[in-house]
Amino acid sequence: MIIFIAFQDFIQYNMSKYLIKVKILLNLYDAIKDNNIELVARLLPNRMSMDFLTVDFTKALDIAVKNSRTTIVTLLLNSYELKLKKMEAFSLAVKYGSTEIVALLLKDRRLKFTFCDNHLNTYLHLAAQNGSTEIVKLFLKDARFDPSNSNAKNQTAFDIAIEKGHAAIVKLFLEDGRVDPTNSNPKKKTPLHIAVAKGYIEIVKLLLKDHRVDLNSLDVDKRTAFSIVADTGDLEIVNLFLKDDRVKVNCLDNDLNTPLHRAVIFGRIEVVRVLLENPMVDPNSANNKDVVPFLYSFRDAVPEMINLFFTNPRIKICLPLVEECLNFLKNKQNKLYHADNISRDIFKKGLLDGNIDVINIGLRYFSDKESLLTTVLITAAPNLLSWQKYNYYTSAIGETAFTFAIKTNNIKMLNAFFSNISTEEAIKYLDIANNYGEKPLDISKQRYYRHLDEILMKKINEPQNLSLAV
Asked: What is the domain range of residue 411?
């Protein structure tokens, strides 16, 4: 019984002691948060009598550093003067970005700063990762920090700043001069490759200004940074590269794709537009499959993309591959922009370029010939020399292109006809009737257009004036 009472008293005593300790600790933590230096100073001596555990001290230190209580950190370290604790405080200060506390602890020249974790990251790595610009600035001024140190992944603090997109820190490293901005990772990606891929435009600007950076460096897939930005479609970065004469705009990757190929493949319409407008970009370069960029626009059948190529005078059409693409599209009934639409565009392109073979493909694959003729006669009349082969081609209702020109009162079209055909040919046109028995002259009279017999007489009697007055 006596033993039991003694044990009970012991338990109560220790419980009371523990509760007092907890109360003191809670008061201490609150005082640190409130930056009540006087109360912290009064409570700290109790650490000796209350037998503070290391974990208690660490928590107090953590709260002080996290809240940037510089004076209180000094009090804590002085009350528990161990070098290990100073390093612990330093680690916390770097972690929380407490610049004042870092500056305070850096004054102790006895401290050595090596690796701060098991992955061989230094405190400079940690500061760069957290975006702590002012702390990085302090470290770069201190000889105890070497910016060329790499972690277990062979990354320097500069590489981490690039990866995280901290432009201000990247600028500090570049100005320091001790880092190599051309250093590449195992996939041969340089800082410029990474910045471009992530769309960090401010970092890209900094790297482009650095004379040490090789703008045309190749990764393992033989892609330059410019090739990568063609993939991502960042138009602002594309324009930055195009303004720099050092950039090879027609660089080739492993598959011999140019940046224009890649922009088309990834559906970057605005990038394609800008590249096609640049005279240094070769739009007719073929890759290792002998495919030029514009043919990839057929894959997703996007009208806007296809029209960018068809309306560009520098594009050369590879007829066999165009036919192959059209055959592919004809078998894809779910395509919104099907073979008929593309055939019309091909036809227009051939007409504008004066390429009979291209016109032939357009006609061959377009199912609604009448609609095609109507469209072409209205929109592409200025270049009709290439149309002569199809002057006698008739639509579903038996009308020639000449008849369409009459029906639409297209004076420009008629001028082109009379400027490029003989009187005998003109008479032949007049004699071709449609399925309803209507000849061009009949249609002209029905619609109260200028009489073709008068025009024809003028051509016969005045051969020197072969065009119509508009």
From this structure: 391-470
